[in-house]
Design brief:
about 300 residues, alpha/beta, eight-stranded mixed sheet, two-stranded antiparallel ribbon, 8 helices, 10 strands
C-alpha cells in the first residue's frame, strides 16, 4: 500500500514542474528519485514506483519542462516557441527535483533510478554529490556509431536528415507524427542530435567537451543493461559509465534467457511481468545501499 499524490517541483529558474510522490506506509528506508528517459512520461514508471513503495521506499518522479504533465496548455498542439534544451532539463529541472527529494526525507539515503536519459544526465547535476547510490537502466551515451544494430541502421537518417528538416519547418521536432521519440522542443532535439553525432557525447555548440560533474560523483552505481536492447549497444553503456571515474560501478549485462524471458529491450524492465526477476534484483541492490548508509532506517 502507498499514498500517491501529485506535487509541484519548482525548478531553479522558477518553472513549475509536475511531479508525483509515492509515500510508503510505515518507516521510510530511503528516498528514490526517478528521472525519465527521453520523451517518456513519468506515469510510465508508476508500477515500478508503487512496487518500491510497497518495500518501504519513498519515490519522487517528475516530468521535465515541456514534457508530460509539465507541458503548458498553450503548447499542447505545438512546441513551436517553447524554449528548453537538455542542459535545462539537467541543471534546472533534474537538479531541483534532486534537492526536493533530499529535503523530503532528509534523514534517510537518497537514491536515483535513471532510465536511459535519466542516467545520462546524472553527471550534469551540480548537486550530484548528494546522491548515495544510483541504479541505471538501459543507460548509455547516444553516440550513433555505438548504437545497437536495429537503431544504428536508421538513426543516421534521423540525425542528418529528419531532425534538421522537420525541426526547421515546424520549429520543434514533431516526433509523434514521425513515430520517433515524441514531440521535443527545438533546443532539446538540436542538443541531443549534436551529442549523438559526437563520440565524446557531452559537447557544447562549438564541439568542445562540456564541463560536467562526473568526477565529483563517488556513490555506488549499478548498471542494468540488456543484450536485446534495440537502442543501446554495449559500447554505449560502457562509454557512459566510464565517465563516472571516481565511482564504484557494477555492470550487469543481462540476456533475456537468463531471467526466462523472451524479450526485455530498452523499455521492458519497467513492465510488471518482471516483478519477480529484474525488479527483485534492483530491490536487493537498493536495500544494500540502504544498509550501508549510517543514517538508514531498517524495516
Amino acid at each position: 500500500m502507498s499514498l500517491i499524490e501529485t506535487t509541484e517541483v519548482i525548478a531553479k529558474d522558477g518553472t513549475c514542474l509536475v511531479g508525483r510522490k509515492y509515500s510508503p506506509v510505515g518507516a521510510v528506508r530511503a528516498v528514490v528519485l526517478m528521472p525519465a528517459a527521453m520523451g517518456v512520461k513519468q506515469q510510465f514508471y508508476a508500477p515500478f514506483a508503487e512496487f518500491l513503495c510497497e518495500h518501504g521506499f519513498a519515490v519522487l518522479s517528475f516530468d521535465y519542462r515541456g514534457m508530460g504533465e509539465s507541458l503548458p496548455s498553450q503548447f499542447v498542439d505545438s512546441l513551436r516557441g517553447f524554449d528548453a534544451d537538455i542542459s535545462d532539463w539537467a541543471e534546472l529541472d533534474y537538479n531541483s527535483a534532486l534537492l526536493a527529494a533530499r529535503a523530503w526525507h532528509a534523514d534517510v539515503p537518497l537514491l536515483v533510478i535513471g532510465h536511459s536519459l535519466g542516467g545520462q544526465l546524472a553527471g550534469l547535476l551540480p548537486d550530484n554529490h548528494l546522491i548515495d547510490g544510483m541504479l541505471t537502466v538501459g543507460s548509455g551515451t547516444g553516440y550513433w556509431r555505438y548504437n545497437a544494430p536495429p537503431t544504428k541502421r536508421m538513426v543516421w537518417l534521423l540525425w542528418y536528415f529528419l531532425v534538421p528538416l522537420y525541426t526547421g519547418v515546424c520549429g520543434y521536432f514533431p516526433g509523434k507524427k514521425l513515430r520517433k521519440v515524441g514531440n521535443l522542443p527545438k533546443g532539446v532535439i538540436y542538443q541531443w542530435s549534436r551529442w549523438c553525432k559526437d563520440k565524446r557525447y557531452f559537447v557544447d555548440e562549438r564541439g568542445n567537451a562540456m564541463n560536467t560533474y562526473h568526477r565529483q560523483f563517488k556513490a555506488p552505481i549499478l548498471s542494468l543493461s540488456f543484450t536485446d536492447d534495440e537502442m543501446m549497444g554495449r559500447r554505449n553503456i560502457d562509454a557512459l559509465h566510464d565517465y563516472f571515474s571516481h565511482a564504484p560501478v557494477e555492470r550487469r549485462y543481462i540476456q533475456p534467457q537468463d531471467i526466462q524471458a523472451k524479450r526485455v529491450g530498452h523499455f521492458g524492465f519497467f513492465r510488471a511481468e518482471f516483478r519477480h526477476s529484474l525488479w527483485q534484483q534492483a530491490l536487493q541492490w537498493l536495500i544494500q545501499q540502504n544498509k550501508h548508509h549510517p543514517s538508514a532506517q531498517t524495516n
